């Protein structure tokens, strides 16, 4: 009976039709009611739930308008996910329906139709894979070929032997750091907070180089590379996180020259490279001689733990011989799913770039109207606000008190600076971004 699925759905102070519609949505999202299931008739639902048929009709009408059910003549109502919910960039957790807006992380939901289709096709052709041992290695040959082909198409000739598949970009960085063992590593100030935490735990000394929304400070880069001689450098030249800055060709050439002069291994994080929000997206030339790491976490889904390292074939062979490399390898079936997704990635990127561009422009226009100071990023996932007379920690704390969680600039700093900054992702839907702006307005007034 449906009463077993919707126990405790009545909510004091909430109209029965609203409470029933909310309960059915929640039941779909947590799997108690499956997408594609047929609902009981209106009359039967009313009897089982001990409510009037009018209450059921009102609840189902609302769900039908929102896209949660579809009704066919003579075939009843079936459950589905609204298209805008199943295919949009924003995860449900930043939908803005609950009391808390948590924008401390900027990650996508899975494009449901693309991922479920890829999983189905991968399982259908997994027989040969399942007959093998499944032991970690360099990655499925097909996947390495697909990744190498994408690099080659962007102007960096690459062979499959130059690719090592990992369980995400963080795994790629951890493997490289463990293998290279640098005593010092150049990092951008600001840098992604998880990266800074990982490097600290590995005992690597970070050498910061300043980055703003306008770009990299050449003098700071030269000083940092000199200090980190015979070490490593971790840079994100394509839509840097959190500033969104894009490194120009001249600075990329300078980085390559500094690396050669001081014996520094440059590791380039390319996880944001495909999030180009310019009117005509086009990949920039890569830093010469750099080892690159990438993943599908920012473009497809963080739950698909597939990343990679692209470097000289000798380095890839040495990494494979490292005893810890197996710890960072993704499951073979997940790699097979990635093989199904990569040929479709360009089409998905067109959709996601358009969505993110609209959200970025909407948030930027609203914040600009309120007098906030920032540089509009050409890509990436967030605005990097410059605060006037207010500490980022203070503003973030005030915002949290009224239901908006954001990260202050100091969370992205390797040396505790950037206290006058705040990161505001534009990964949420437009309606939620309007709430974000209102919360920021209230927090700033307080």
3D architecture notes:
The structure is a single chain. By secondary structure, this protein is α/β, with parallel strands linked by helices. It has three domains: 2-81, Winged helix-like DNA-binding domain superfamily/Winged helix DNA-binding domain (Arc Repressor Mutant, subunit A), CATH 1.10.10.10; 101-110 and 346-445, Aspartate Aminotransferase, domain 1; 114-345, 3-Layer(aba) Sandwich (Aspartate Aminotransferase, domain 2), CATH 3.40.640.10. Helices cover 43% and strands 14% of the residues. Strand 6 and strand 7 (215-216) form a beta hairpin. It is globular. The model has no long low-confidence stretch (mean pLDDT 93).
């Amino acid at each position: 009976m449906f009463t077993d699925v919707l126990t405790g759905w009545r909510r004091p102070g909430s109209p029965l039709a609203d409470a029933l519609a909310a309960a059915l949505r929640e039941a779909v999202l947590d799997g108690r009611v499956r997408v594609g299931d047929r609902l009981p008739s209106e009359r039967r639902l009313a009897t089982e739930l001990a409510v009037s048929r009018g209450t059921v009709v009102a609840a189902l009408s609302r769900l039908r308008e929102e896209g949660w059910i579809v009704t066919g003549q003579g075939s009843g109502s079936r459950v589905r996910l609204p298209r805008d919910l199943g295919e949009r960039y924003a995860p449900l957790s930043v939908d803005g329906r609950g009391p808390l807006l948590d924008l401390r992380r900027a990650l996508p939901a899975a494009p449901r139709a693309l991922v479920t289709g890829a999983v189905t096709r991968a399982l259908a052709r997994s027989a040969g894979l399942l007959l093998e041992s499944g032991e970690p290695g360099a990655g499925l040959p097909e996947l390495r070929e697909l990744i190498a082909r994408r690099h080659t198409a962007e102007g960096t000739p690459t062979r499959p032997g130059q690719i090592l598949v990992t369980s995400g970009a963080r795994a790629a960085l951890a493997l490289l750091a463990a293998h290279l063992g640098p005593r010092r590593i150049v990092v951008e100030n600001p840098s992604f907070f998880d990266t800074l935490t990982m490097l600290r735990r590995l005992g690597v000394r970070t050498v910061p180089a300043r980055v703003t929304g306008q770009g990299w400070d050449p003098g700071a880069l030269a000083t940092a590379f000199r200090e980190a001689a015979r070490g490593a450098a971790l840079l994100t030249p394509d839509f840097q996180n959190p500033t969104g800055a894009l490194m120009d060709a001249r600075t990329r050439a300078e980085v390559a020259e500094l690396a050669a002069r001081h014996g520094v291994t440059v590791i380039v994080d390319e996880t944001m490279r495909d999030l180009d929000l310019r009117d005509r997206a086009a990949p920039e030339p890569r830093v010469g001689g750099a080892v690159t790491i990438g993943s599908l976490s920012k473009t497809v889904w963080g739950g698909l733990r597939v990343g990679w390292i692209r470097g000289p074939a000798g380095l890839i062979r040495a990494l494979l011989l490292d005893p810890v490399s197996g710890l960072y390898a993704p499951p073979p079936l997940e790699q097979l799913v990635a093989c199904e997704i990569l040929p479709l990635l360009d089409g998905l990127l067109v959709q996601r770039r358009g969505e993110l561009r609209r959200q970025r422009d909407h948030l930027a226009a609203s914040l600009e109207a309120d007098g906030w100071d920032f540089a509009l990023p050409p890509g990436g996932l967030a605005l990097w606000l410059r605060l006037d007379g207010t500490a980022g920690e203070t503003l973030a704390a005030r915002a949290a008190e009224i239901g908006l969680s954001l990260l202050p600039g100091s969370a992205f700093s390797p040396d505790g600076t950037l206290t006058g900054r705040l990161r505001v992702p534009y990964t949420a839907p437009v309606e939620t971004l309007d709430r974000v702006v209102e919360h920021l307005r209230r927090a700033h007034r307080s």
